[in-house]
Design brief:
151 residues, alpha/beta, Rossmann fold, 5 strands, globular
Length: 151
Amino acid sequence: MERWKGKTALVTGASAGIGYAIADALARHGMKVIGCARNIATIHELAKSHNNGPGHVEAVQCDVSKPDQITAMFAHIAAKYGHVDVLINNAGLVQLDPLISGRREKWREMLEVNVLGLSVCARETLQLMQKDGVTEGDIINVNRGYSPLRV
């Protein structure tokens, strides 16, 4: 973790669960963490708990199923931080609609977040890394491990 001290991380889905825990741990190890989610109230609380360092957390509202919100978030990141050194693509959801009775709109929502949102965040991260000549960065994708193809 020492090599990441002072570096910038983006954690999607940082308002609860795994994303919240990752954002907290990265900030405790000295990273500048941008935590994004649709509802950012808990990320604001996390940010307050890191006021005295060694790292910090910034809450940014972003629904990763909305490409325009992702674009706006990355414009903010580029202006304030330049680039992201570590992307934790954690935002995701599971729709428990089985194949035989499932609703397409629920599957579409899951694909927009878990696949398209993840891909757009990765693309934007790579573009900022490339722009700034970053040669050591990480993109970590968290998988929900569920398929709607159950009967």
